[in-house]
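Quick start: read one record
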Amino acid sequence: MNLKDLPKIELHCHLDGSIRPETIISIAKKDGIEIPTENIDEIREYVMAPISCKSLDEYLDRFTLPNKVMQTKENLKRVAYELLEDASKDNVKYIEIRFAPSLHTQKGLSFGEIIESVLEGMKEGEEKFPIKSNLILSCMRTMSVEEAFKVVEAGKEYLNKGVVAVDLAASEYEDFAHKYKEVIEKAREYGYRVTIHAGETGIGKNVLDAIKILKAERIGHGIYAKDSQEAYEILKNSHVTIEMCPTSNVQTKGVTSYESHPLKEFFKDGIKVILSTDNMTVSNTTLTNEHDLMSKAQNMSIEDYEKMYLNGVNASFASEEIKEELRKYI
């Protein structure tokens, strides 16, 4: 099967992890931003994580340079637009982009200005390319509860205008759910949907906490859900969906190989899973590439692909109208 030609749904893609290396150089020249080099191959080395990463923290170091050039309204808008263009070229029909507004305030932009700029870029991308999109606001687990509340408050103005959900991201530590419980409760009260990074780095209990305490509708990564029997059973018997990102998981040592990734095990056990890129640039991948790698490593069939695509449609935070459009592709 020609995976490139098949329609795709992307639900876990970070904006700053998917910037074009060429754009980093272009923005740096335009704005007089100091970067280590203007050699494109060397810039790729700075922003693309090797498959031999030692840990998630080493992987996250690759975001430093992208965020350095994503500090103005114009640049945020450009990066969002280009991401829709790149996803569309991979025949992605619907994408949910996530990003942390708090990482883009170095030049004085407010959270509102930051969110609005990204939405403008996405809107222009939708007008130019055959793709639909929505935005997820990430709160960083390194930030204070007060700062997380500010993100949620700033974003509520844009609910139903492109913003659809809230997320918790960054380095994972045990019991983070308790710290941000009130923040996520407030977000749900405002109308945000909820997806949470959990079980990415060996803490299965975090998946359980994300579901039971934070009422997560989707779990980012979730590979260690297998280490919590209760979490695993809930996943098997509910509509909670896992956004799996195999290349990223191999890089961060969440798994040792594509063959050992729990994707097919979860999928065959009735857990609703979907494939995502996590970061198109940092992981040097596309959704076509992720499906190709897992098809070869775990003998996934075209029927599996179709089921996963529909899992993505059903788990998306898109309107029912857009979901109906997406189902017609299959």
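The first helix runs from residue 21 to 31.
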